[in-house]
Every structure is written in structure tokens, then in C-alpha cells.
Design goal:
By secondary structure, the protein is of the alpha/beta class. It contains nine helices and six strands; from the N terminus they run βααβαβααααβαββα. One of its GO terms (molecular function) is fructose-2,6-bisphosphate 2-phosphatase activity.
């Protein structure tokens, strides 16, 4: 059986990313530079033999996946599916506000003076999730149990489906905090937080029901695509 591999991409840069507003379940489209970056990524990935492609149900992820596939020589033949379980965290009433506001509120809920202190103390994803849940006045945010279940089962089901069909490589477009959280679910020692660049690729393998990580947040495919564009 062929090895099962997921190329997990953070979506391209959006309007809210650019103006630094909270964007979880709310959505904005890719900017012109965001589209250009993903087209470069698609060019850099065009030699990867993708068996399937997936994205979350957020418009920015769907747009990113379609742009990548449009650069792939076999793009029209690659089955593309949408899975809402791999969407971003829900930030409830904090959605749409400035990032600085949310990351000012969350540390205070956890009795830290600021964001840097919260991160320095190695605050867990569980604690951050519970703080967002407590800060959400609309009662829309997910509990840690709900969030961890949907993210884990979403990615596991994608990998299991590919493995069951003989293995191979799959493109999976998701979101920054969700990808970082997945890495922590795979390995509790993973300390990646919000540092994954738009269009970066996290390379995972899956075997016998277990994920292993080959690379995190790589931008090498974007750079490769830029070089191809120059030729």
C-alpha cells in the first residue's frame, strides 16, 4: 500500500488577515496579494501527485483549494471535497473585532497581564479554548471537547479514507489555529501557536491510525512557484 500523506495548507491571505481582524467562522475573500501567493503555491505543488483534495467549508479555504488545483496539470481530474470539521475555531462574539482586542481579553480571563505573558507560561490550547468560551457573550464558541473532537475526527477521517483507497497524497486546505491545534493533538509537546504563514504547507503522514509530522509551516513551495514563474 502507498504511504498516506496530507499536504495541509493554511488558506491564502484575506481582507481580515490584512487588517488584523478576528476571522474564525466569519469569512472574507482573498486579497490580490493573497491570490498571487496561492497561485505561486499551486505552481510549486504542480508536480505533487495529489489523489484527492479537501478544504473546509469557509469561502477563503475553498477559494485557496481551487486556485491551487487550477495550477495543477491534473487539477480538473482530482476529486475535491468540502469538510466543515476542518474549519477554523469559532470565536463567538469576538469574531470580526481586532486581533489585539481578542488577545487582550483572553489573557485577562486566564489572569495574565498580556498575551506575551500567556504564551511565555506555556498556556495550553485547552486553557485558551476555555477562555474564549468564557469570553464569548453570544454563546457561540465551542467547548474544548467539541473542538478537539471535530478537528481530530475531521483530519483522521480524511486520512483514513485515502488510506482505505490505497494511500497516496492529498491536498487539505484549512486554517492557522486549527492546523496548530491539530499538531498539538498529534503531539502534546508541539508548541506551534499562531505562527503559520498564509499558504504555508504542513506535511503529515498517516499509518495505522496515527499521524506523524514531516514538516511544519513550510513556505518552500511558494518560493519554488515564484522561481517557476520567472522562467
Amino acid at each position: 500500500m502507498t504511504k498516506t500523506e496530507l499536504y495541509v495548507v493554511r488558506h491564502g491571505k484575506t481582507m481580515f488577515n490584512t487588517v488584523q481582524r478576528v476571522q474564525g467562522w466569519c469569512d472574507t475573500p482573498l486579497t490580490k496579494p493573497g491570490v498571487e501567493g496561492i497561485r505561486n503555491l499551486g505552481a510549486g505543488l504542480k508536480d505533487v501527485d495529489f489523489k484527492e483534495a479537501y478544504s473546509s467549508d469557509s469561502g477563503r479555504a475553498i477559494e485557496t483549494a481551487r486556485l491551487i488545483l487550477s495550477e495543477h496539470p491534473h487539477g480538473p481530474q482530482i476529486p475535491f471535497r468540502i469538510d466543515k470539521r476542518i474549519r477554523e475555531w469559532c470565536f463567538g462574539s469576538l469574531e470580526g473585532g481586532y486581533d489585539a482586542e481578542m488577545w487582550g481579553v483572553v489573557p485577562r480571563v486566564l489572569n495574565f497581564s498580556n498575551y506575551d505573558e500567556m504564551i511565555d507560561k506555556e498556556t495550553t490550547f485547552k486553557e485558551i479554548c476555555e477562555a474564549i468560551y468564557d469570553a464569548d457573550t453570544a454563546n457561540w464558541a465551542e467547548t474544548y471537547e467539541e473542538l478537539s473532537f471535530r478537528v481530530r475526527t475531521g483530519f483522521e477521517d480524511i486520512a483514513h479514507r485515502i488510506e482505505k483507497n490505497g494511500g497516496g497524497k492529498a491536498l487539505v486546505v484549512s486554517h492557522g489555529l486549527t492546523i496548530a491545534f491539530l499538531l498539538n493533538l498529534i503531539n502534546e509537546e508541539s508548541d506551534v501557536r499562531m505562527d503559520l504563514a498564509n499558504g504555508s504547507v504542513t506535511h503529515l503522514t498517516y499509518e495505522d491510525g496515527e499521524f506523524s509530522c514531516q514538516s511544519i509551516g513550510s513556505t518552500e513551495y511558494i518560493e519554488k512557484g515564484k522561481e517557476i514563474d520567472k522562467v
